[in-house]
Specification:
This protein has about 525 residues and is α+β, with helices and mostly antiparallel strands. It has four domains: about 30-160, 3-Layer(bab) Sandwich (Phage tail protein beta-alpha-beta fold), CATH 3.55.50.30; about 175-240, Ribosomal Protein S8, Chain: A, domain 1; about 265-340, no CATH class; about 345-420 and about 435-520, no CATH class. About 20% of the residues lie in helices and about 45% in strands. β6 and β7 (about 150-155) form a beta hairpin.
Length: about 525
C-alpha cells in the first residue's frame, strides 16, 4: 500500500514539473516577435538588454549603450537623446518598426494612417536619430516635432499641411487691422534704413505695409500689422548702433632739389665815333678823346650769347663783367662774360588730418587750377580750368581684432613745362585751315592705389617715386665754338639737375571715445 502511494506521488510530481515546463515554454513563445520592452536607469553607465530571436520571421536585437554625445542629437530631448541602437529585421512593417523606436526613445509617436508598407533593416550601433532618418527617407516619410510628440506622415502630406497653414496665416494677416509706429533713430540714417526695409525680394514688410521717413527728426514711420511691426522694431534695434570712427593722420613731404648753371659771353667791335650809352661792368673807356660813355649792347656787342638769367621761372639777371680788350687803331674790342648759378632746395611738408566712419570714404586734396583757352565751333573762346592737385582718398575698415584695413588711392597731378603747339584758327573758313601759335601746359600725372592692413597707431610710408631730370643745353657759333680753349667764348652752356620725391606717411587711429578726436587736434 505504501509502495503504491509513493509511485502515485512520484507520478504527480513528474506531471507538475512537465506542466510547469510546458507553461514556461508557452509563455516564451507569446513574447512579441518584433520588439522588446526596454527599461532605462539614468544613474547606470551601461544597460544590458535581453536579446529576443524568432526562427521563422527573423530576429531582432535592440541594445542600449552609454550616452555618447547628446549635444549632437539636439532634435529630440530626453534621457534617450544621443544613445545608439541596433536593428536587425526582415520584412517588418514600418509602423511596428517606428513603434520600436518610439519605445526606445520614450517619445510619443503619432503615426499617420497612410503610413504603410514593409522593409528590411540591418543597423548596428548607430545613433537612434540617424536610424530614424534612414527609416523615414527610405519610405518617403517626414516628421514634425512639437515638444515630446513626433508626428510622422508622408512628405507630400506634410508639405500640403504646411502650405495650408501658411495660406491660413496669410488670410488672417489680410484681416488684421494695421498699426502705426514712429521709430526715431539715434545713429543710423533714416533713408538708409528705409532702403533696407523696402529692398526688393528681402522686404520685411507685409503686402500691406508701407514706410516713410522724416529727415528733420531722422525718424522712420511704419504702418503694418502688429506682428510685422514687432519684427521690424527688433531689426532696427540691431542696425541703430554707433559706428566706430577712424582718424587718418597724414604727413605729405614733397622734396624738390634743383641746380642750374649757365655760362655765356658777348663781345663786339666799336669805333670811337659811335661811343654812347653804357657797357655793364665797364662804364668808362680811357681813350685819347677823353672819357666817353660806353655804347649800347645792340650797337657795340656784335656777338650775343649771354647767360639768360631765366632759371626756375626766375627773371633774376645773371652776373656779368664787361671790359675793353684792346684798341686796334680807331676800333675798340669789347667783351662781356656772364655767368649764373642757382640752387633751389624746396621741402613742402603738410600734415592734414581727417576723420571718417568705418567703411566710409574720405579724401583731401590740395593744389592749383590751371587756366587755358577753349575754342568752340563758332570761334568763341572761353577760359577753362584744369586741376593740378595732390589728392589722397582713404577708406578704412576696422577688423574685429581692432586693426585697420586701408584702401588707399593717391593722385599727384602737377603742371609740366609749357610746350608750343599750333592751334587751329577760327571756324567758318571755306578752304584751308589757318593756325595760330599757342602754348599748352601738360599735366604730369602720378597715381598709386593700395590695400594695407595696419595695427592701430601704426605708420605706413607711401612713396619711393624718385624722379631725376638732367638737362645740358649748348648754344654755339658754328666752327668758332670748336676752337680749343677759345671756343668757349663762342657758346652758351646751360646745365640743370632736378631731383623730386614724394613721400606720404599715414597713421590710422581708431576712435573709441569722442574725446579722443578732440584731444588729437
Amino acid at each position: 500500500m505504501r509502495h503504491c502511494l509513493r509511485k502515485m506521488l512520484f507520478c504527480v510530481l513528474i506531471i507538475m514539473i512537465a506542466a510547469t515546463s510546458a507553461l514556461a515554454a508557452y509563455q516564451q513563445t507569446k513574447i512579441p516577435p518584433h520588439y522588446s520592452a526596454l527599461q532605462s536607469n539614468s544613474t547606470e553607465t551601461e544597460h544590458v538588454i535581453p536579446k529576443v530571436s524568432v526562427s521563422d520571421d527573423g530576429a531582432t536585437a535592440v541594445v542600449r549603450t552609454p550616452q555618447f554625445d547628446a549635444a549632437k542629437s539636439n532634435r529630440y530631448t530626453g534621457d534617450s537623446a544621443g544613445q545608439r541602437i541596433s536593428l536587425n529585421f526582415t520584412n517588418i512593417k514600418v509602423r511596428e518598426l517606428l513603434q520600436i523606436v518610439a519605445q526606445f526613445t520614450k517619445l510619443n509617436f503619432v503615426i499617420n494612417d497612410t503610413v504603410k508598407g514593409e522593409m528590411s533593416i540591418h543597423l548596428h550601433q548607430v545613433p537612434w536619430t540617424q536610424a530614424l532618418d534612414v527609416i523615414l527617407k527610405s519610405q518617403n516619410l517626414g516628421e514634425r516635432q512639437s515638444g515630446n510628440i513626433v508626428y510622422i506622415a508622408p512628405l507630400s502630406e506634410l508639405m500640403k499641411q504646411q502650405i495650408d497653414e501658411l495660406e491660413a496665416k496669410q488670410r488672417m494677416s489680410d484681416l488684421v487691422p494695421l498699426a502705426d509706429k514712429v521709430i526715431r533713430l539715434n545713429y543710423a540714417d533714416a533713408e538708409e534704413v528705409q532702403n533696407i526695409l523696402t529692398t526688393k525680394n528681402i522686404s520685411v514688410l507685409s503686402s500691406r505695409g508701407t514706410t516713410s521717413i522724416d529727415k528733420r527728426t531722422n525718424s522712420v514711420w511704419i504702418r503694418d500689422t502688429p506682428d510685422h511691426i514687432k519684427t521690424i522694431t527688433k531689426l532696427i534695434k540691431q542696425i541703430d548702433h554707433p559706428v566706430k570712427q577712424v582718424m587718418i593722420e597724414a604727413r605729405i613731404v614733397n622734396i624738390d632739389r634743383k641746380f642750374e648753371r649757365q655760362l655765356g659771353a658777348r663781345f663786339g667791335l666799336t669805333k670811337p665815333s659811335q661811343l654812347s650809352g653804357t657797357l655793364q661792368g665797364a662804364n668808362q673807356l680811357q681813350v685819347a678823346q677823353g672819357n666817353p660813355s660806353a655804347v649800347p649792347f645792340a650797337n657795340r656787342l656784335n656777338f650775343n650769347i649771354p647767360a639768360t638769367g631765366n632759371i626756375f621761372g626766375s627773371t633774376t639777371p645773371a652776373g656779368s663783367i664787361g671790359l675793353a680788350l684792346a684798341k686796334l687803331g680807331s676800333t675798340f674790342v669789347d667783351m662781356e662774360l656772364s655767368a649764373l648759378e642757382q640752387q633751389n632746395d624746396l621741402d613742402i611738408i603738410s600734415s592734414p588730418r581727417l576723420i571718417t566712419s568705418n567703411q566710409q570714404k574720405a579724401y583731401i586734396e590740395t593744389g592749383e587750377q590751371i587756366p587755358y583757352q577753349d575754342s568752340s565751333s563758332s570761334g568763341a573762346t572761353t577760359v577753362q580750368f584744369v586741376d593740378a592737385l595732390l589728392k589722397l582718398e582713404v577708406t578704412p575698415q576696422i577688423t574685429p581684432d581692432n586693426r585697420v584695413i586701408l584702401d588707399l588711392k593717391v593722385t599727384n597731378n602737377s603742371a609740366g613745362t609749357p610746350i608750343s603747339l599750333n592751334v587751329p584758327g577760327g571756324s567758318g573758313q571755306t578752304s584751308g585751315v589757318t593756325n595760330t601759335a599757342g602754348t599748352a601746359i601738360p599735366i604730369n600725372k602720378e597715381e598709386e592705389s593700395s590695400r594695407i592692413l595696419l595695427n592701430d597707431n601704426q605708420t605706413v610710408v607711401l612713396g619711393g617715386v624718385y624722379e631725376r631730370r638732367k638737362s645740358n643745353v649748348v648754344t654755339r657759333i658754328p666752327f668758332l665754338s670748336k676752337i680749343p680753349l677759345l671756343g668757349n667764348l663762342f657758346k652758351n652752356t646751360d646745365k640743370s639737375t632736378d631731383d623730386a620725391e614724394l613721400l606720404i606717411f599715414l597713421t590710422p587711429h581708431i576712435i573709441h571715445k569722442p574725446s579722443q578726436a578732440s584731444s588729437s587736434y
